[in-house]
Amino acid sequence: MLRDSPRSRTVLALLVAAAVVLLVLDARPGGNPVTSVARAGGELVFAPAAAGVGWAGAPAVTLYDGLREGPRAAARVAELEEANAALESELQAVRIDENRADQLDELLHLSGLGGYEVVAAQAVTRSTARGYAHTVTIDTGTESGVREDMTVVNGSGLVGRVIEAGPRTATVMLATDVKSAVGARLEATRKIGVVNGGSVPGGPEADLTLELFDMEAPVESGDRVVTLGSHEGAPFVPGVPIGTVDEVQVAPGALSRIARITPAVDFASLDVVGVVVAGPDGDPRDSVLPPKPEKPAKPKEEQ
Amino acid sequence: MRSVATLILVAVAVLAQATIVNRLPFEWGPGPDLVVAAVVAVALTTSPASAAGCGFAAGLAMDLFPPAEHVVGRYALVLCLAAYLVALVRRNTGAPGAVGSRASGWAAVGATAVTALGVGLGYAAVGLVIGDPHMTVTAVATGVGVGTALTVLVSPLVTLPILWVRSTLADSEFATVQGPMSPGGW
Predict the structure, then answer these.
(1) pLDDT tens by residue, A23-79
(2) For residue B181, is it within any domain?
(3) Predicted ipTM?
(4) What does each C-alpha distance from A170 to A38, A130, A151 come to in angstroms?
(5) Residue A31: closest CA among B18, B56, B71
(6) Distance, in angstroms, between B71 CA and closest chain A CA?
(7) Around A10, how many Cα atoms within 13 Å sit in the side-chain half-sphere?
(8) Is B20 on the interface with A (CB under 8 A)?
(9) pTM of model > 0.80
(10) How far apart are the CA of B183 and the nearest CA of chain A, in angstroms?
(11) Annotated region Disordered: where (chain A) (predicted)?
């Protein structure tokens, strides 16, 4: 059926024979000159061609690899990003927890020294509708025993007082608010006065200003001020550190002596605070104050 | 003219197979076989003896190019026989006509598919005879199956252009007037 010319068959037979000879030659163990020379020739052609293709095809190979790895790489990137975010938030949480723990420790220390019974709370927000008043919102309320006119402290000293208490939140007027006036007493000399938020007329620009009623009272920068305490401990319990006298203004003819007070509390970074729900049995006097710094001439903000 | 063009095209196919296709990291194993596709195109338009020579040369080139993972002559033997058989069948059945008449595209692709299958099986058979330890049933089945499918996929890009070149050049040489038994030429 399949006809072919004898010559054609001869050609085929020759080629097949050549192939078989090559097969047998190359399949035998050990090298032989025919196939090794032939392979060397093939390599001679192949090597530059392959190098050229490799050079020309490098971008295509990169693209191909990128495409092939693309979905996997995207998945990997997403996975790593997720892990990274989880680790980051964990780290942040650890840092915040450490910070809170430190502040709670300080608060406990202060309340233990003064014999105050405190409810810990967290300052949630400092924003007010217009930004005039210095108030913060804390996350405890009447359900935790917080009432109006309770003293709010943190580990460093006086924060302010509760002016409004809801079931779960309370509003605290900071001591730096201009409406705030805290009865104060100088450490050691026991001279009394009032610490007002902001500046008083005729006084220096300040966060807190101390007005001493006794014109002759000796007061110097570096003297520390604690709360005097109110009747029945409301709104202020006695003995809470308020701040340090920074600068005394000598105004001839003034009715009172005015001093600028550096607050003991860093009002810019309020976090953990405590509401004093029960005051001490007796006035703790100066026992809540931290040990006097070595150089009272250069008073630093405590803590 | 025709033979030179064919020589260049087949050489390009061989080089492309050795340097490009064999370089691509296919996860499933074998890639398309451009050499088979090119040799089929030549065999469909020439005499059996010339087809056998073409197949032998292309196969021998593939044998000699790195990687030298199989013995020299194995691919040459298989391709030589395959090209001869394709040309012989083409000449004797002569479905749409004698040598030189334009083969239809579908027929060429079909011939490529059958040839790729046969070449794959023949290559495996030679391996069995000379004791290649790679020749297991599953390896051969997947290799031949996937390889044939990929070769069929690329054959429109290789077989049909070569067929077109050869037919176009043949027309100007009046090759179509040759008889069915003529030895023909490249």
Answers:
(1) 888 877 777 888 888 888 888 888 888 888 878 878 887 887 788 777 888 888 899
(2) no
(3) 0.76
(4) 94, 19, 12
(5) B71
(6) 6
(7) 4
(8) yes
(9) no
(10) 8
(11) 279-303
